[in-house]
Amino acid sequence: MMELLERVESSYISAFKTMLMDVEAALTEAQDVRLHLMPLKCRLEDIERVEFSEVKPFLLPLLHVVCLIWVTSKHYNMPVRIVVLLQEICNLLIEQALVYLSPEDLLKGDMEESLGKVRMVLGILNTFKEAFEERREKLHTYYEPGQEVREWDFNSTMVFVRLDTFLKRLEMVEDLLATALDLMKLEKIEFSGIKGKTLGQQVLDMYEEFQEAYKLFSERTYDCLDLTNMAEDSALWAVESPQDQRVPPRERANISAMGQHRNVLRLHEDFATLRWLKPHSSCFAFAQDFEQDAFGFQQKVEDIDRRLGTVFIQAFDDASDLEHAFKLLDMFGSLLERPVIAADAADKYSVLISMFSRALDHARLIYSRHIQTELKLGGYQEKLYADWSQTVSEKSQYNLTQPLICRLNLGTGKGELSDVPMVLMLLAESRGCSCTVDCWGVWDHISMVMDDVHDLEQRIQKAKNNVEEIQTIVGSWASPIFVRRDCRTESLLSLEDCQDRLERRYSLVRESGQRIHLLVKENQSLLLADPASDIWKAYVDYVDEIVLDGFFTAIECSLKYLLENTDPKAGLAPLFEVQLDLVIPDLIFQPSLDPGTNDGFYDMVEGLLNDIYRISSLVPRLAEHSGFLHYQVRGCGAPSCWWQ
């Protein structure tokens, strides 16, 4: 295009050359800006990726990149551009903090959790400001030796104008939440003493007033962290255009240059909050709903604090002693740090110190008496030792001539020990004898005997416990096998589930028998018994008799149930049912009542009795030397003869 214009000798050559040079300069500038801002992109993405509570480690590397941009970029090392960049970083941090805090729920959720989040955000944002000042002071370290150092000579308020406003609002919310947490303690305050009930009711009324005042925030729908919702003292600075005559000519040029590169870096609406500007009347925002509510809440809290201070003074004056005074201080806790309450309570600390001094004087008196008592006891101990030392020699000489262990006393059947061990210990304590009990190996022998006796006692106790368990097992059999239907006195004997009940009882007895045999075998091991010895057989007969008694009791219980429920004198409902059918020309009973009839009533009853007696055949006999395999023995043929 340039060659064509030169060929035709166009009058636009000069203008086109100027435009071409501007485009080339703008392109070079854009390439330089992009080159130096690209490393910043990764750092910003790191901040956007993590939760705000984890942002702190990324702040210093981020500012490090900003410092490198300032030092190395040829076109981005102007104050106005670096200020805008830092403002945008502040805006990003604010946006991330808002996501983390969830402002719409900040005053509606758990107070302690919300306060922790607010303090976390305050700490991170203040850390960012501190890191900025640190990098600002060390900016000269980024330059090579001999290179001209260009400091950040702009005012830091230009960078943090919006961030400071946000921090101020956060501090307001923090104070509100901290105050609310303090006043939540009012619910648990209780007083003792004469005025306790009256003072407690006053505090309860204050707590209800606080609840009502704080409830207002949970009912509001505004965003308590909205930066447009702020008071007049937080007025924004603004410039409507680069041609604003309040801006010096050189800075107007810088603002114009920034406007040309908005495709490189998005500018925030308050980018031109610069130190040379005056407040613009159209940018003021007056106190909105939240600040009005917070102000009203603070007034209510101050009134509660004044009344609470009066209550504390009355309760302190009513405290009967130092202990109650300290309990009162502990109960109020952090409430005493609130300025209004602290001013009211300040005069009471001197009274507390006086009470403490009196308590110390009393303790000092008790201690003095204790020392005097110890001195008297010391004199008594010395006298006691003197009396003992006069007789110990004679007693020890006599007892040393006696045997260490006496024979069994035939009259009482008890063993007796001589006084020699006591004398030996006395000699050892007096340090007048180099001989000890161990000289004769007495303690080793006694220790060995004690170990053996302890082991024997444990084994005997375990064997005893096993026998008691056997008694418990056989005792569990003592319940009727067959009962009326649904256990109701007017019902018949439940013949439908007889087989199921019988199988359950048989299974219980079989499992019990296995357990009994295991316990007897364990006792044989515990008692170190020879299974072929007569004494062991006698012991087995003893346990066998327990099992035998258990079967006797179990069978007796079932038979007794049948007898009692078929006794006509008892006046109970019938236990069995027999149906009379008319089969012309005969009357037939179902089941048959004839003794010799198969499947008749007598067979049914005899079957029930046989089933009852059969439980004694389910457990192998413990006394194998008796010659019986189990506890049921075939006899004359009647059920009563089957029982051994």
In short:
By secondary structure, the chain is mostly helical. The protein is 62% helix and 2% strand.
If you had to describe this structure to a student in words, what would you say it looks like?
By secondary structure, the chain is mostly helical. The protein contains 18 helices and 2 strands. It has a two-stranded antiparallel sheet with strand order 1-2. Helix 4 (79-101) runs parallel beside helix 7. The longest helix has 53 residues, at 348-400. The relative contact order is 0.04.
List keywords for this structure.
two-stranded antiparallel ribbon, disordered C terminus, mainly alpha, 2 strands, 644 residues, single chain, 18 helices
How many angstroms does the end-to-end distance come to?
A: 132 Å
Beta-strand portion reads: under 5%
Report the biggest beta sheet as strand number plus sense, adding barrel if it closes.
2 strands, antiparallel
Number of helices: 18
Poorly predicted parts: 231-287, 408-420, 635-644
By helix and strand content, what is the structural category? mainly alpha
- Tell me the number of strands: 2
- Rounded mean pLDDT is 78
Order of helices and strands: HHHHHHHHHHHHHHHHHEEH
Give the overall silhouette: elongated
Adjacency order of strands in the biggest sheet: 1-2
- Evaluate the radius of gyration: 51 Å
| Helix content percent band | 55-70%
